[in-house]
Amino acid sequence: MHDPDPFAPDSGDEAGDTVFRDLIMLTLMGFVTMVILMIPHLNPPAARAEAKPAGHVIVEARWADGLQSDVDLWVEAPGDAPVGYSRKSGAVFDLLRDDLGARRDATALNHEFAFSRGAPAGEYVVNLHLFNPGADPLPVEVLVTVSLRDPSSGHLREVVSRKVTLRRRGEEVTVARFRLDGAARLVAGSLGRLPKSLRG
Question: What are 124-134's pLDDT values in tens digits?
Answer without folding.
Answer: 999 999 988 88
